[in-house]
């Protein structure tokens, strides 16, 4: 030190800071501090840690050699995705049917009870056909796939596979102008877009975080992909020999997910070239050692938690939605129900998208939660006067067919479900996180216009080529 | 009933959230990837008729304000001054994990080191001499496996002792190069004069030498808040809402 | 044998290097230091991602992936006979 510091008496934090900076002299001291701490840590470890066999410690590296290898990295990723879907679809069928049957029986008793006390028809309609049936459908369609998917997802997460997905896909996200961690927040979206929006906090740069928020919706969340599974298995796979049915359904759902990822990357790319321009920020990603997940505990907790939250949501969202749909379907104005009036308003536009008015209305009423879109649609169809025997879920296909569904309707409804705006909870979270009305609105409008554009092009092409009537 | 506050600090992927869940019975989301705890979660439990409030700080590699997470963790430890800071470290990668532990020890002596994932270490053939670490660091050190619930009783015992003041840990002082030590020595008297002993002067000196402007900003903001009596910073307590 | 100093981005899979310096400033520099990219430390090149970038490195028995933008700014001397 050349200057005599004793004469300098800093009297505020700022001058103290300035003094310290004049003494420090840049990066050297910073490096020195970290190096000395590391040295201390290393000295302690040298005495306190003993490695029995380096080979054992390197088991993670050996697995990574395969899981992130140039040849096997992507095939393994796809295979895992496919297997997860296959297990979910194969496993959910039977319990879904059983739940539907059970609710059907209960509905019978309820109806009998209402008749026994000579309850008015509207009350029976409102409570049994609206509230009870709406809730029952959400539970029987949604609960089994979620109760199977979530534990598997939790196992993969606890095992440590997600960071490998980010590692494999980073180059794509870099090219698209997004942050490498966007692959992680995207993966979280498979579980729940609303939670994934919060998880984007791991992305420090506001620009890249916004891209991650705006594109998170393009991976199907738990509320949507039971819809995808159901539609895929009912229609697209219907022409396939029954032993391959589950497999083909899984492949179609996987295809939808891949489309979602392609859209994610494309939209990220466009955003990073336009509204959210900028250079990718620096990036470090830890690949933590693989850990043996506690199978039973993870499975039990994940299915219990998810089942509970699905049931809660069914009561909170599906029950009122069921009531509203029933009212709309049964209050008549000028000889026709409000529901039918609304559907016919949407019909012309919906038709150009290969959908119908009821479907668009179901998506509109389903804004609070994607889980209720399909049940609302079914209720809409049923109250529209179509005479369909509805003992259970087996007849969903007949209901759809009676309303003129073709493979195009099924395909475009899947695409619309995949691409359209995020659910209400997610939008609320987007607003909370961005504090911006503009970006929240955009986060709904961007996906919506893509959904409209994609389904429009497909519908028009299919019709022009004479593939559908 | 008496109440103590415990902060959980540690690297990402050390099982901090699992320990939090084990202690509080709550269900913080757990997973094996960096940055999954994006919120500061709070919970409570009772042990020997004393209530412990547990704060799960974001998992960080360091406390040198590289990111918002690290600032949250650092500000909590230095300004809220929890009764005990439990530093959770991964037995299978101690070298990097102790880096953070040593940073915490420069900020407070009320620390219990919690060597987690002992079951994984055993599986991977890593032997950790906990006694040795305790001697070297000068703070209570406990080996646990949060997910198997082993070692939790011992951990609680040490936490209780540090919280109640039965044990006053004397942590190791990291010795820096002569040049850095000289500068610390020159800065310390000024720091003592300006800030008193509320914050460890040696640590403040190091942060100032490091040029940590964000800490400077936090310090100023904190001094302003404290100057207005009756105001106490509130810990954000949010839950991820998910369906 | 005189050792050659190369950026980590030029190192081949399986190589081990002693770090000599980091040529970045600010937050990234601190982050890299905190992760163990400290001069004098030994780094092993573990694995390229399937699309060639990023690359995973072994630092203090942990695995950290860096993009080329970052790894080209970190320098080290190759260890061993390679």
UniProtKB/TrEMBL annotation, chain A:
Pfam families: FeoB_C, Gate
Residue ranges constituting the Nucleoside transporter/FeoB GTPase Gate domain according to the UniProt record: 140-232, 312-435
InterPro entries linked to this entry: Fe2_transport_prot_B_C, FeoB_GTPase, Gate_dom
GO CC term, one of those recorded: plasma membrane
Keyword Transmembrane listed: yes
Annotated GO MF terms: ferrous iron transmembrane transporter activity
Residue ranges annotated for the Ferrous iron transport protein B C-terminal domain, each copy included: 253-298
Alphabetically ordered keywords of this record: Membrane, Transmembrane, Transmembrane helix
TM region positions: 71-92, 137-162, 223-241, 248-271, 400-419, 439-459
Record's protein name: Ferrous iron transporter B
UniProtKB/TrEMBL annotation, chain B:
GO CC, alphabetical: plasma membrane
InterPro entries, per the entry: FeoB_Cyto (IPR041069), FeoB_GTPase (IPR050860), G_FEOB_dom (IPR030389), GTP-bd (IPR006073), P-loop_NTPase (IPR027417)
Name of this chain's protein: 50S ribosome-binding GTPase
PROSITE patterns: G_FEOB
Pfam families: FeoB_Cyto, FeoB_N
Database matches in CDD domains: FeoB
GO molecular function terms attached to this record: ferrous iron transmembrane transporter activity; GTP binding
Coiled-coil regions, chain positions: none
Residue ranges annotated for the FeoB-type G domain, each copy included: 3-165
Domain of life: Bacteria
Species of the source: Brevibacillus thermoruber
From TrEMBL, chain C:
Keywords: Iron
Organism this protein belongs to: Brevibacillus thermoruber
An annotated Gene Ontology molecular function: transition metal ion binding
UniProt key word Iron: yes
Domain annotation Ferrous iron transporter FeoA-like: ranges: 6-78
UniProt name for this protein: FeoA family protein
SMART domains hit by this protein: FeoA
């Amino acid at each position: 030190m050349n200057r005599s510091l004793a004469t300098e008496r800093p009297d505020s934090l700022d001058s103290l800071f300035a003094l310290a900076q004049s003494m420090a002299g840049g990066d050297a001291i910073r490096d020195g501090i970290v190096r000395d701490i590391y040295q201390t840590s290393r000295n302690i470890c040298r005495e306190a840690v003993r490695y029995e066999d380096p080979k054992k410690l390197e088991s993670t590296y050996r697995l990574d050699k395969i899981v992130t290898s140039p040849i096997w990295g992507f095939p393994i990723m796809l295979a895992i995705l496919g297997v997860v879907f296959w297990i979910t679809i194969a496993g959910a069928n039977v319990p879904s049917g059983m739940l539907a049957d059970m609710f059907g029986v209960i509905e019978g008793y309820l109806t009998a009870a209402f008749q026994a006390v000579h309850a008015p028809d509207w009350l029976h309609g409102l409570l049994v056909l609206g509230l009870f049936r709406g809730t029952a459908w959400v539970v029987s369609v949604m609960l089994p796939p979620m109760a199977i998917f979530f534990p598997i997802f939790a196992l993969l997460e606890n095992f440590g596979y997600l960071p490998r997905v980010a590692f494999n896909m980073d180059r794509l996200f870099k090219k698209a102008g997004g942050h490498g961690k966007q692959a992680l927040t995207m993966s979280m979206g498979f579980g729940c877009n609303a939670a994934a929006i919060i998880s984007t906090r791991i992305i420090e740069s506001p620009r890249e975080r916004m891209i991650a928020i705006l594109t998170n919706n393009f991976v199907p969340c738990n509320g949507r992909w039971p819809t995808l599974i159901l539609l895929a298995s009912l229609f697209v796979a219907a022409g396939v020999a029954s032993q391959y049915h589950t497999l083909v359904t899984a492949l179609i759902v996987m295809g939808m997910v891949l489309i979602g990822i392609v859209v994610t990357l494309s939209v990220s790319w466009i955003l990073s070239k336009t509204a959210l321009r900028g250079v990718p920020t620096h990036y470090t990603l830890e690949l933590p050692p693989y850990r043996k997940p506690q199978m039973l505990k993870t499975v039990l907790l994940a299915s219990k938690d998810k089942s509970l939250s699905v049931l809660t949501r069914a009561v909170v969202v599906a029950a009122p939605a069921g009531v509203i749909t029933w009212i709309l379907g049964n209050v008549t104005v000028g000889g026709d129900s409000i529901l039918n009036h609304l559907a016919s308003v949407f019909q012309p536009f919906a038709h150009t998208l290969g959908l119908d008015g009821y479907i668009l209305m179901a998506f509109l009423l389903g804004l609070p939660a994607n889980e209720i879109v399909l049940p609302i649609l079914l209720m809409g169809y049923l109250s529209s006067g179509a005479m369909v025997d509805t003992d259970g879920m087996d007849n969903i296909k007949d209901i759809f067919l009676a309303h003129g569904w073709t493979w195009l309707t099924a395909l475009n409804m899947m695409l619309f479900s995949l691409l359209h705006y995020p659910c209400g909870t997610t939008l609320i979270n987007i607003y909370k996180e961005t504090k911006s009305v503009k970006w929240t609105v955009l986060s709904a409008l961007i996906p919506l216009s893509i959904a409209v554009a994609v389904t429009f092009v497909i519908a028009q092409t299919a019709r022009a080529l004479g593939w559908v009537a | 009933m008496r109440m103590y506050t415990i902060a959980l600090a540690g690297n990402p992927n050390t099982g901090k959230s699992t320990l939090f869940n084990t202690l509080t019975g709550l269900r913080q989301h757990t997973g094996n990837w960096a940055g999954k705890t994006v919120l500061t979660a709070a919970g409570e439990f009772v042990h020997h008729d004393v209530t412990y409030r547990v704060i799960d700080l974001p998992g960080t590699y360091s406390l040198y304000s590289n990111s918002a997470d690290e600032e949250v963790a650092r500000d909590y430890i230095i300004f809220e001054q929890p009764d005990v800071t439990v530093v959770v470290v991964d037995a299978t990668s101690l070298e990097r994990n102790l880096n953070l532990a040593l940073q915490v020890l420069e900020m407070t002596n009320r620390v219990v080191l919690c060597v987690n994932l002992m079951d994984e270490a055993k599986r991977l053939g890593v032997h950790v001499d906990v006694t040795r670490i305790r001697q070297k660091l000068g703070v209570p050190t406990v080996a646990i496996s949060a997910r198997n619930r082993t070692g939790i009783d011992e951990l609680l015992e040490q936490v209780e002792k540090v919280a109640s003041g039965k044990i006053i840990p004397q942590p190791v002082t990291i010795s820096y190069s002569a040049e850095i030590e000289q500068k610390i020595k020159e800065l310390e008297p000024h720091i003592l004069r300006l800030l008193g002993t509320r914050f460890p002067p040696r640590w403040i000196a190091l942060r100032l030498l490091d040029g940590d402007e964000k800490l400077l900003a936090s310090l100023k903001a904190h001094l302003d808040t404290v100057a207005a009596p009756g105001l106490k910073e509130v810990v954000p307590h949010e839950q991820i809402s998910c369906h | 044998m005189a050792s050659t100093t190369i950026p980590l981005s030029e190192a081949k899979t399986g190589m081990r290097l002693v770090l000599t310096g980091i040529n970045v400033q600010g937050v990234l520099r601190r982050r890299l230091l905190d992760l163990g990219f400290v001069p004098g430390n030994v780094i092993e090149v573990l694995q390229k991602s399937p699309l060639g970038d990023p690359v995973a490195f072994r630092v203090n028995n942990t695995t950290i992936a860096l993009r080329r933008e970052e790894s080209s700014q970190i320098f080290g001397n190759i260890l061993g006979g390679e």
